[in-house]
Write a structure and sequence with these properties.
The chain is an alpha/beta fold. The chain has two domains: about 150 residues, Rossmann fold; about 130 residues, no CATH class. A seven-stranded mixed sheet has the order 5-2-1-6-7-9-8, covered by helices on one side. A two-stranded antiparallel ribbon has the order 3-4. The longest helix is centred in the middle third of the chain and has 21 residues.
């Protein structure tokens, strides 16, 4: 809605996350830049906005599944195959059933044989998230592995711990292909740049006339920890010490000061690359009143309130966000 309304020529998201701003901008023919401190988020954003030869992609993602299926039949019989797809990684051993480990590790080792390796890594990580030893109702923030049958709040029955990854790999292969095909119908030639960097110091192109972003909420989520399954399985570098407002820092007065300093440092840095009177639209849940436009070199020219529906987990209650509309001064 806001991209259509203001029609920017170059939009920037300093907290790119899963790449929503970049995807929406591209669909509208708007050049975009995104930065994220999390290499997993960068990988996800790049995969979402990449160009694909659909026929080759279809061939590759079907082929890797067939090869995995062939190896699967040997897991219980062939000791060499079992050894090949084993790991000493403590996280993987703890959070995945033995058979699940083999299937995920097998798929992971096959990725190098294909063109669209990053997309296959995303299919693998999505599957791993669902294939963990966790309850169905707590995929977001599981505290410990679920190794026994349990009363499931989501399905209102007794559910069993997950013991395979193949069904998820199949499901997300089909789902990912469908998503790529759908986006290819509306994808434009607009440029997309994704930076793996700290938004407080990253080099950016001049001429940014809109910032559209949703910064992390203070003391709510440890973003690297939330996707630890992907970091461990894909061997990604962890930059959690550079997160702004992680859950482990809490919501104390000092944590609030550190948080808003981090946010303001990002905006002050970004401001250098913005056009005169450029806009910043910031999606926040600012219950502590920390966001002050003037502290970051902006003035507030509007605000929109919206209700948010949670999609996963058991957190309840009304949840509201504000969209702050600021202008560079």
């Amino acid at each position: 809605i806001f991209l259509r309304k203001y029609k920017p020529t170059l939009v920037y998201d300093p907290f790119a996350g899963s790449g929503t701003t970049l995807v929406e901008a591209n669909a509208l023919g708007i050049d975009s830049v995104g930065t994220d401190i999390s290499i997993f988020n960068v990988l996800l954003s790049k995969v979402k906005t990449a160009d694909y030869d659909i026929s080759l992609l279809e061939k590759e993602i079907c082929d890797i599944l067939k090869r995995l299926d062939t190896y699967k039949s040997k897991f219980s019989k062939d000791e060499k195959v079992n050894k090949l797809f084993s790991t000493k990684n403590e996280y993987i051993q703890e959070w995945f059933a033995p058979n699940t480990q083999k299937e995920l590790l097998c798929y992971s080792r096959l990725i190098k044989d294909y063109t669209y390796q990053d997309l296959l890594r995303i299919i693998l990580s999505r599957s791993a998230r669902s294939a963990r030893l966790v309850t169905h109702y707590d995929l977001d923030f599981p505290k410990e592995p679920q190794t026994k049958p349990y009363q499931c709040y989501k399905h209102q029955r007794t559910c069993q711990p997950v013991e395979e990854a193949y069904k998820f790999l199949s499901r997300y292969t089909i789902d990912t292909l469908d998503r790529v095909k759908e986006f290819s119908k509306i994808k434009t030639k607009a440029k997309v740049i994704v930076n793996h960097a700290d938004s407080r110091e990253v080099e950016l192109p001049k001429g940014i006339d809109m910032v559209f972003t949703s910064p992390p909420y203070i003391g709510l989520i440890d973003y690297h920890e939330q996707h630890k399954y992907a970091y461990e399985l894909l061997g990604l570098k962890n930059n959690e010490t550079k997160e702004i407002g992680p859950a482990k820092n809490g919501q104390s007065q000092q944590a609030k000061r550190d948080y808003i300093k981090g946010i303001n440092d990002v905006l002050l840095h970004t401001r250098k690359y913005m056009t005169p009177k450029g806009l910043a639209l910031i999606v926040v849940n600012d219950k502590y009143g920390l966001y002050k436009a003037e502290d970051a070199g902006f003035k507030e020219i509007g605000r929109v309130e919206r209700h948010v529906n949670r999609r996963t987990g058991r957190r309840e209650g009304a949840f509201y966000e504000s969209i702050l509309i600021w202008q560079k001064i």
